[in-house]
From TrEMBL:
SUPFAM superfamilies: Cytochrome P450 (SSF48264). One of its GO terms (molecular function) is steroid 17-alpha-monooxygenase activity. It comes from Pomacea canaliculata. Signal peptide: none annotated. The lineage of its organism: Eukaryota, Metazoa, Spiralia, Lophotrochozoa, Mollusca. This is Uncharacterized protein. One of its GO terms (biological process) is progesterone metabolic process.
Length: 133
């Protein structure tokens, strides 16, 4: 009876490794159900930061707004972030659904990026349909 190591050659090991890495990648960047649409290609651990580095981040956010609408989501690192654009959407979210934002966590990265002017942070509840109703 041959051992397991003798049965596995280098090609089988590589195929198994690629399959495991692909599954890890898929589960790390897949959007949860109910999350708003957004760019599909997210690199594990980096998210969509590589796409933002290709051009000016403001231009990239404007392009995503044109493509996905006033509410979209993206990964900053491994954290899924929901982005609100436009006065009406932000007002609807903060005035009509203020309870959805009462449990947001403090994001130090946002303080660095906005020089501590970013008052909206991350929301734990990702069901954006509730916010838009």
């Amino acid at each position: 009876m041959t051992s397991l190591l003798e049965m596995l050659d280098i090609n089988t090991g590589l195929a198994l490794g690629v399959a495991v890495l692909s599954l890890l990648w898929w589960f790390s960047v897949r959007r949860p159900a109910g999350a708003p649409p957004g760019p599909w290609l997210a690199v594990p651990l980096l998210g969509h930061l590589l796409l933002m580095m290709k051009k000016d981040p403001l231009e990239q956010f404007a392009a995503w707004r044109r493509q996905y609408g006033d509410v979209f989501s993206l990964y900053l690192g491994s954290q899924l972030v929901v982005v609100f654009n436009g006065y009406k959407v932000i007002k609807d979210a903060l005035v009509k659904n203020h309870n959805a934002f009462s449990d947001r966590v403090h994001c130090f990265i946002l303080d660095i990026i906005t020089d501590s002017k970013g008052k909206l942070n991350l929301v734990k509840d990702l069901s954006y349909e509730v916010v838009l109703k």
